[in-house]
């Protein structure tokens, strides 16, 4: 399930070492993708600029709804010249 990253309600939650909210085994937080991409800052900024929707849970939920409705959106691969090295 694509979820929004919860905002902490107080300083204690903001500074907690572990999540203070429930995380299920199938939960995904697109807003947290960036730290796991391993990209230098400039490349990450370019990804955010051109593909910022990938970091928005609502975009992923809408895509799931389209698949559930029987749609199959075209998702062609990037041209070689547009891929990250």
From TrEMBL:
Signal peptide: none
One annotated GO molecular function: phosphoprotein phosphatase activity
One term under GO cellular component: cytoplasm
This protein's name: Isocitrate dehydrogenase kinase/phosphatase (AceK) kinase domain-containing protein
InterPro entries per UniProt: AceK_kinase (IPR046855), Isocitrate_DH_AceK (IPR010452)
Domain Isocitrate dehydrogenase kinase/phosphatase (AceK) kinase: 2-79
Transmembrane region(s): none
GO process annotations (BP): glucose metabolic process
């Amino acid at each position: 399930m694509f979820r929004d990253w919860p905002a902490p309600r107080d300083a204690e939650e903001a500074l907690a070492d572990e999540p203070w909210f429930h995380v299920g085994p199938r939960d995904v937080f697109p807003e947290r993708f960036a730290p796991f991409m391993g990209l230098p800052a400039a490349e990450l900024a370019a990804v955010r600029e051109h593909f910022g929707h990938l970091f928005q849970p609502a975009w992923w939920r809408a895509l799931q709804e389209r698949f559930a409705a029987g749609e199959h959106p075209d998702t062609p691969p990037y041209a070689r010249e547009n891929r990250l090295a």
